[in-house]
Write a structure and sequence with these properties.
Chain lengths: 203, 203, 203, 203
DNA sequence: CATGAATGAGGTTTCATTCAT
DNA sequence: AATGAATGAAACCTCATTCAT
């Protein structure tokens, strides 16, 4: 009696193990949802369709997101953060990149998330979904404008703010066209028109 | 059958009278649907909401349209036909309008259907609804391109087809921006950038 | 041509016909719901169970009630209105009924809605359902108290208000006991104790 | 199996130590559940809400209780046992307490578990939850009745059984009123009416 | 041509419970 | 003993569409 004995006991998973599992599930849900939202549209994609495609129970989604719209919002946020990060990484601090490089880095960034870009834009036009995408487009737009303005200041262009606004507006048009037609000739035409114009103006 | 019927002395209406009645009902349904679709989105607008707003019974819609999606498609078609017609009316055959006039006629046309334009574009981005809008945008685009090309030929510009394509692409960007931001400064900036560029090029 | 012809046309149902149909459906839904709520409790009774028992599609309920809780509230209101009406009908204006008659009319009223009374009381104790029942019990209680006070004033009892409050409280206890034990000996004991006491006090 | 295990040198805890740990967990679960059930109702309180409030994992509950309903039943039983014990402790064997003291001890007992009393009563009215509460109320009632009867026998009252039943019924009404209105004026009115009546009768 | 009650399939969401660790 | 991710059944509810009149 009172002898020390060896015994096998179950150890609950550690915090890290749980974190890993959660991250994996969360990730597959978002990935699958993005895929289906993009392919079929937000409204036409049901939770159960996502669950089926992801190979999980429908209820599981609600362990990670407050609801369908929250899932969408989280996807949008993540994608826009990715985009901003990507663009920043493309542009060197020194030497100052010229305007063509800036534009192309931006377009390349969008191209890197081609599949989801169309979804993001479509959400922006749907009054019944949310304003999140619109806000993110706004943030992205502002971010671009600041880069353009900084560039124009360095180049000594007069009215740098107004010029930056104009360029931002044109780029905005390109963004939308891109969503509509993919990496088509149309987008390249727009790009070339813009860049040629700017170069002709000596910028 | 135990059907509630009534024997009536039936004074035949002329085909025209019938058509008039039908056209009136059809029209109010489409008008109301367009209004609600634009305000709240296609998916968020229910048939009964349309019926209520239009002051008719929900079932009546099915006398005129195959279903909700058919209603949408018919609206889209009508709006695009309206737009094409409008633009054509704005442009005189003689004297040959210059490119600025052509562009502005187009923008004015879109402005005349401002409220529904955003809906049309949003539909274009929703793969689950229909490809009709995309097709119509395509037709519109082609129509514009032909006008541009004709103009360029007359003006003796070289590569008229390619130039027309470029212009069409830029206009496409403007159309989309317009849907996104309404008649904002952004759209005017785009328009001015385009026209200025073209004029500087001597077109 | 242009000859008058006889023809059979369908006539839509009249407003009255629709009203009749609606009233019938509404009634069967409420009746069935009351039955099941009383038998199994509010939370344990699902909409689909009600629909099945009533022989209708589950969705139909939502043509008549905003939701499950609204259905409950409407039932409660109706039952309490019935009760108040019943009690009033039992009591003659002249000659002034004595206190025993008043009490018995009230108890008889509750007895007439025996099956639902338990449900009403149970709802009153469920913090997660609604305060409607509590409010209705309050209204009923106040109504009774006014009757008692009026009686005591006529009889020339001193402190009629306080006496009415005391009697109301005792009756309240009886109401609750009734809900708990049905028309058992317990309730009659309570009733007799109350009436005997009052009579012994010469009221 | 790919089970995460650990070989441990197992220092056996004494049965008492184990019991202590178990009792502590069991106790916090019951306490928390009672609190939430009382505040929000049984159906509106989820297992995970209890777990969160108690600071434990949801699954742990199932080590101690068969399920949610079992947890409820165990809580009810414990509370009623507490109540019976409390009332007994309040009443001295000698000298024989008079009827007012007996009544007040009972009411004081209920007052000591004020917060849970309403829950217990509410459960009593919910046929879908369990009959346990009803049974316990029955047991409590019987217990009281025996005390009353014993008292009446000692006092030499004629028909002690019937008198005890009557008093028990009145007390039952008070219990329920108490649940409904808390320690309000209404309950005191009931109590005073009862005691005054009994004293006037010389009991 | 017009009505609106009724259907029924499908949607989102909740949550008690299980189970590998 | 304890963890919490995952399940799956069932809940409430919406709404396009049908159909008897």
């Amino acid at each position: 009696m009172n002898v020390q004995t060896k015994e096998v006991v179950y150890i609950p998973k550690s915090k890290e193990q749980f974190e890993e599992i959660r991250e994996k599930s969360r990730s597959i849900i978002m990935k699958t949802a993005l895929k289906l939202f993009s392919a079929n549209g937000y409204h036409a994609t049901s939770i159960s369709a996502i669950a089926k495609e992801a190979g999980i129970a429908a209820g599981l989604m609600y362990n990670y997101f407050k609801g369908k719209e929250d899932l969408l919002v989280k996807i949008i946020e993540e994608r826009f953060l990715d985009l901003n990060r990507y663009i920043s990484e493309q542009l060197p601090d020194e030497p100052i990149p010229d305007i063509g490089e800036i534009i192309d880095a931006t377009l390349k960034g969008i191209d890197s998330m081609k599949d989801s870009w169309k979804l993001l834009i479509s959400i922006m036009f749907q009054p019944d979904v949310s304003q999140i995408a619109t806000e993110w487009i706004g943030k992205l737009s502002l971010h671009q404008q600041e880069i353009y303005e900084k560039y124009y200041v360095i180049k000594g262009i007069k009215n740098p703010k107004e010029s930056a606004q104009a360029l931002s507006a044109v780029m905005h048009g390109i963004f939308l066209s891109y969503a509509h037609s993919g990496d088509s000739a149309e987008v390249r035409l727009l790009r070339n028109t813009v860049i040629k114009t700017l170069i002709e103006k000596g910028i």
